[in-house]
């Protein structure tokens, strides 16, 4: 759809109205044929079940990956994933938003594989203007390889919230007022890759990928970006005069979700850059000093 819109002579107002109507009618779950392009790995990335399922595979020769056809500037985006089962040590399944250029913005979910029976590590990060170093890591409270689970990103001008099965696990607030960059100006595509990172992914690189277990497979379904602002030809689908701003564009965490966030961070967080004094001997980043 993006290539058609970019090349057609349909007036931009009509384009924006079409996307507005799609949003207002609550479009159903996405189709991988319509919404994504395979960008890496040839046959190792496979769209199945009439576009309802996508599998990424990793073998010793190559990993694989895909990207969204659309770019987005703010949104609430859901994807259901089932991660590599068994001995996944050395593998990384990444699911993230990223803009273009050397001063890019990025919002990351990364799933670090582990030996059979050991928990996955969910690694999160936020980049703005090419600078990240805002990592938080978690153990999940379920087996992410046994079934599909929903991983969501809420990104609006005030905050970024990471959700797992509807429960918030991390909030990164816009603190530009104190000099902390926030990803607010660059549209981003959705990407996902499955790749070998056994030089660092599992126990700091001590555990290597067991290629006798290959191919490794991660599966995706139920993509939903109906609550997102599509960026086309320098304009947002949310800027139409006919568009009524949705609730998610100013969404905050209510008291119930704040309690859920606190529970996850107390019981399942295993690393927080804001408490790593050895890493920041000259003082923590500015946002770490805010409550």
From TrEMBL:
SUPFAM superfamilies: Concanavalin A-like lectins/glucanases
CDD domains, per database record: GH16_XET
Keywords: Apoplast, Cell wall, Cell wall biogenesis/degradation, Disulfide bond, Glycoprotein, Glycosidase, Hydrolase, Secreted, Signal, Transferase
Pfam families xrefs: Glyco_hydro_16 (PF00722), XET_C (PF06955)
Signal peptide: 1-30
Record: glycosylation sites: 114
Active site as annotated: 106 (nucleophile), 110 (proton donor)
Location(s), subcellular: Secreted, Cell wall; Secreted, Extracellular space, Apoplast
Enzyme Commission designation: 2.4.1.207
A GO BP annotation: cell wall biogenesis
Domain of life: Eukaryota
Enzyme class, broadest EC rank: transferase
Cellular component aspect of the GO annotation: apoplast
Molecular functions per Gene Ontology: hydrolase activity, hydrolyzing O-glycosyl compounds; xyloglucan:xyloglucosyl transferase activity
Record bears the keyword Aminoacyl-tRNA synthetase: no
GH16 domain boundaries: 26-220
Post-translational changes noted in the entry: Contains at least one intrachain disulfide bond essential for its enzymatic activity.
Similarity annotation: Belongs to the glycosyl hydrolase 16 family.
Role according to the record: Catalyzes xyloglucan endohydrolysis (XEH) and/or endotransglycosylation (XET). Cleaves and religates xyloglucan polymers, an essential constituent of the primary cell wall, and thereby participates in cell wall construction of growing tissues.
The protein's name in its UniProt record: Xyloglucan endotransglucosylase/hydrolase
Species of provenance: Salix brachista
